[in-house]
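Write out this protein's structure.
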Amino acid sequence: MLTLVLFVGLFVIYGIAYIVFAFVQPPGFLSSFFRVPSYFGLLPDRLVAPVGRTFVGLVILGVTGFAVARGMIGH
């Protein structure tokens, strides 16, 4: 059970961090963990990082919430 809580907590923290770093530039050593998918490169330059990182963070949170709600994790 503790492993489940740590696993879900890790993904929730990672998703929230993605959203936070959409609006604040991550430190150099963390920037490789918060990359923006290449298809967001089609957006104007000022929107690439905010929109891309917000989208990825919401997907991570959504998939984690869906997996927990459907019983895919912790069953």
